[in-house]
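sanity check this record:

:::
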Amino acid sequence: MAQSAAQQEDLLSDAKSLFQQNKFSEADRAVRQYLKDQPDSADGHFLLGHILFREIQAHAMLEAQFQSQAHGPMRSARTMGSNPSPTPDLTAAQEMAKASLAEFTAGARFHDPSADDLKTVALDYVLLVDYPDADKWLAKMLEWAPNDSDGWYYLGRTKYNENRFAEAISAFQKCLKLDPQNVKAEDNLGLSFAGLGRHEEATAAYKQAITWQAQLLAKNPGPYIDLGSLLIDENRPQDAVPVLLQAVEIAPRDSRTHELLGKAYTRTEEFPKAQVELEKAIELSPQIPNLHCMLAPVYRKQGLAEKAKAEYDRCAALTGTHSTPETPRQ
């Protein structure tokens, strides 16, 4: 029996309430039931698009995707905490992103989307590694909602992944104007300066981000990691060590912190300490070829020939395969 109009609206209202409570599976079921009788409801389609995206976001896949597309010493994610467990399969997340986009497309046939809808559309495109489209929709939503600090932050992240560092700097500065002392934005501002080779300004941004969170119990390891990485690149490993020790204290389950600390100890020829850190990094992220390539000469320097050979062999084997991305910070 078809539901009355009042019952249908109650169902949509329930779905919205469940979504706001982060009960995404229940919200998904409720809105799909509503759409069976109301297939031309823009609100229903838009809500389902948001639900599908938030289900992906709940598994940290958005930050994982931003991270996996960054390059070189600047590839680490800039988010809170640490996640020791593997993230869900990216392919499955991308299928959900496509489904989310399909719902926004369906809803747009009946009603114009809001700025918030466009932000989710843009972040779906991030998951699909389509940064030009993500850039386009973030720029459009910011025309409608210029005071959305998160929008500017994600636009900066997108510009960074497009290697458009000057535009990323502008976006992060706008985010910081709206949301002063945003540690993630300041850290990413530093990364964007570093992308242009402006190391003094990058260092100042990392140090500012560190200062802003000095009194916080839960700290973001990103500025420490990025400052330590920059100091290593500048051939100042002895200065990088104390910064990276702080990063390890904040995020002990982040393989990147141990990798960089191991690299710094290798440069200062403290090989036993380098061995400990690189072995820990491999324990956390065994499929990253570079870690094995780094550990092999550390073993060799200490006369551990058999261990060195095993790591060289592992490095060669993994280099010829597709490795999994590092565990992202969240």
Remarks:
- The chain has 17 helices and no strands.
- The radius of gyration is 23 Å.
